[in-house]
Amino acid sequence: MLSTALDLDAEGFHAGYIDVPASLNHSAWANLRVPLFSIKRGEGPRCLLLGGCHGDEYEGPIALSHLVHGELKLEDVQGQIIVMPAFNTAAVQNGSRLSPLDDGNMNRAFPGNPRGTITERIADFVTRELIPRSDVVVDLHSGGRSLMFLPCTFVPVQKTEAATQAIQDLANAFDAPLSVTIREPSAAEMIDTEVERQGKRILATELGGSALATANTISITKRGIKGVLSSMGILKEQAAIPATSKEKMTLLVDGLHHYTYSDDAGIYEMLFEPGSKVKQGQVIGYLHFADRVDRPPQSVLANTSGVLFCTAGQGLVQRGDVLAVVGHIE
Ligand SMILES: [Zn+2]
After folding, report:
1. Does the pTM exceed 0.85?
2. Where does the Succinylglutamate desuccinylase/Aspartoacylase catalytic domain lie (predicted)?
3. Cβ-based burial of 22 (10 A; exposed 0-12, middle 13-18, buried ≥19)
4. Residue 310 and residue 245 share a domain
5. SS3 300
6. What is the domain extent for residue 226?
7. pLDDT 10s digits, 182-227
8. Based on the number of CB atoms within 10 Å of its own CB, is 292 exposed (0-12), middle (13-18) or buried (19 or more)?
């Protein structure tokens, strides 16, 4: 079972590591050092901020790095903020979605296993030590290399309307340009499932993608984190930070008909930017086979009508990759 020398119950601003024994070919007694911060001042609400669940999603690590290295002042905090800016640390060091040490997908490793792979052991630590110390978990994702999102928060529909509204309230506080309501079962191995099992709230985001972080997506992320902390009462209410986008939108995703998958390997040409309205059956892109003389471009169609909010994040795609996700306008 993993532990940390950092005292999570201590008052004040503390930085440390979860040390994960990682016996490797090149280093027999190595530790993977997972960064951890605890900012605690008195009793009050508690929030866990996670970045780098996937290693090629950069808004979370960047915004959280600013937060713990100067932006957050202990005297402004009431309660506790725990920060993991590089959740799947080996994946973050490698710029890859999965951990290069064990191919672990941190968001498919929950509730974790104290005797499992490195990724499963980190998940187990979060399940046992960090989620119980939190009222709210903010899990900062982005599209990574393979997807590109209109910056959004995700609100999965819960068993009761009140529970869904409680997550929608967090999304409203984060104030991304888009809020996506998801009416699909989440996988049992996701952190979302474990947070809900422990009776806590989780807000997940998809803040950009294509393995990039832009000035716009970082500013949305920084603003969103402070909005959630303020709405919880952890941060003193700040002067309203100007909205990065005037247009707000809510979309519904409730099944496979929202997704367009690639039928073949090729180069994807998208015809619409994320945020565009499209109709069912409309040509939204082309798949090109530039290495062949006998294949003309293949049309890619929207499977449903609505707003295109997610596209392939890179030109080259493989058969089965997501090319587009279209949400219904609520
Ligand atoms: Zn992710």
Report:
1. yes
2. 44-230
3. middle
4. no
5. strand
6. 3-251
7. 998 778 999 999 999 999 999 999 999 999 999 999 999 999 999 9
8. exposed
Low-confidence ranges of the chain (pLDDT < 70): 237-247
User: What is the β-pairing status of strands 277-278 and 46-51?
Assistant: unpaired
Kindly state the tokens that stand for 228. Answer: 């959630």
Q: How far is the CA of 168 from the centre of ligand 1 (A)?
A: 20
CATH number where 178 lies: 3.40.630.10
Q: Is there a contact between 68 and 77 (Cβ–Cβ < 8 Å)? A: no
Q: Which residue type sits at 108?
A: R
Q: How many whole angstroms from 288 Cα to the centroid of ligand 1? A: 28
Last residue of a domain, one of 200, 233, 251: 251
Same domain, 134 and 241: yes
- Whether 75 and 21 map to the same domain: the answer is yes
Q: Assign residue 316 the CATH number of its domain.
A: 2.40.50.100
Distance 57 CA to ligand 1 centre (A): 6
